[in-house]
Amino acid sequence: MASDKKKTVLRSANWFGTRDKNGFMYRSWMKNQGIPEHHFEGKPVIGICNTWSELTPCNAHFRKIAEHVKKGVIEAGGVPVEFPVFSNGESNLRPTAMFTRNLAAMDTEEAIRGNPIDAVVLLVGCDKTTPALLMGAASCNLPTIVVTGGPMLNGKHQGKDVGSGTLVWQAHEEYKAGNISLHEFLSAEASMSRSAGTCNTMGTASTMACMAESLGTSLPHNAAIPAVDSRRYVLAHLSGMRIVDMVHEDLTLSKVLTREAFLNAIRTNAAIGGSTNAVIHLKAIAGRMGVDLDLDDWKEGRGVPTLVNLQPSGQYLMEDFYYAGGLPAVLKRLGECGVLNKDCLTVNGKSIGENVADAPCYNDDVIRPLDNPLVANGGICVLRGNLAPRGAVLKPSAATPALMNHRGRAVVFEDFEHYKSRVVDPDLDIDETCVMVLKNCGPKGYPGMAEVGNMGLPAKILKKGIKDMVRISDARMSGTAFGTVVLHTAPEAMEFGPLAAVQDGDMIHLDAHNGVLHLEVPDEEIAARLEKLKANRVIASTSGYEAMYRNHVMQADEGCDFDFLVGCRGAEVPPHSH
Ligand code: FES
Ligand code: MG
């Protein structure tokens, strides 16, 4: 319903509202697009920040979504203006889309602040696009609403439902173990990705869509409606209508993105079996908003049951999740067990508790009831110890229970290239009790912190039918991946974190139940090894964006933002350009 209140002074009036030379210039050029005079007379100007790109296949349908947002904006009396920002697509971009997340965030922030807009709709989908745009928008703090592109339909392969990403890891291991042919392996490609949209598993894209909804930054159901479902376009239309009212209500992002909202998101991540990447992204978004959030806040999620039975932790896919009731059904159940702060304000002007009070669940196998969870104690484990003084993470629902407390001999890979050449060596001294350690894949080491933490097992171990081993690295892992994988070890090896000191044959003890990651080497010996590494370090020279990245990226526990980008700088109107 349209608000009665009208905002009397619009930010955009600083461009379009004057009858002088400057007003003439701003309006005149805009009029070349056929915008009539009355659109410059006190109507809220709504920026539609679009990550559309044919190189980001998950977001390739966004021009159409933008059209529906525009219809809603116009219906509510606003003026829509669509603009592009850097689109960091997960599947094509090298070395990793994470390398350019902060670049996209900078692009978003400056595009919002520098332009004549009163509020912004963020069109996001593929993994890094959601945090990047929320980070940029948080630093500006205008009224902001998230519209996600929606997940792909379920993959269908050989008569079975198959999940994005998860099928790649599974099929590749099967192929390496000699269980399927090359033809069978390759034939799965088209079956997996058969409609527009983001990965249909509870990977990072779906996780971040759920994070945006649980933070209150989107309308209810935004996370799960499939990309090609007509209700996705209705949601885009309604979001377009709503953002105009948010201008009149002055409902800025900081009123939604409170510390309590972030804690709700952390608990929601546990309930959905969400990606470990959310640890980094939520920290980065909170940092932009000036909200205190640290790694230990993830302990809030431990003890929360995982209710959503989706791959990679469970069985189903996002399409099933939407039909079962979507995120509102999950949030309602979290409310029932007392772990949702129901008072948090959301972008529709209601509290999150009000939004989900009557949310139905249509399938208790997809969204489990509280007394029959997929995992009783979900969430993300925060580990600390002499191997990770500033923390590391592990996702118990994707891990093998028997390996959660494990002591084993380290087999060390100095970097990902070393891993690739060494893991195929049939003479490599390794068995399933060993701990695979991968170094120099952290934020600075890779650079960009690649999703290689779930490094594949050696073929000779896979052939024994073994599917999991303890793996430790400073890398990230795709949200679609699984295994007993310790990630985000901080400080990273490149920054001379203790991970850099591990050598073949060292014993490592992982005790995930007690949050401990211990290298059984005396402190003095670790220090001596690190000193030796420092003395021998050759710093490769870099230029361009990579140089800025290496000089300014922070460690995983700090969200991997650039140090100089932390904080909210607001959206004060900059001086005229002419
Ligand atoms: Fe884009 Fe998974 S690769 S969402
Ligand atoms: Mg991913």
UniProtKB/TrEMBL annotation:
Answer whether the UniProt record assigns the keyword DNA-binding to this protein: no
**Start and end of every Dihydroxy-acid/6-phosphogluconate dehydratase C-terminal domain?**
365-560
Work out whether the entry's keyword set contains Ribosomal protein: no
Top-level division of the source organism's lineage: Bacteria
Give the matching Pfam families.
Answer: ILV_EDD_C (PF24877), ILVD_EDD_N (PF00920)
Sorted UniProt keywords: Iron, Iron-sulfur, Lyase, Metal-binding
Query: Where is the Dihydroxy-acid/6-phosphogluconate dehydratase N-terminal domain positioned along the sequence?
Result: 43-355
* Family of this protein: Belongs to the IlvD/Edd family.
**What name goes with this protein?**
Dihydroxy-acid dehydratase
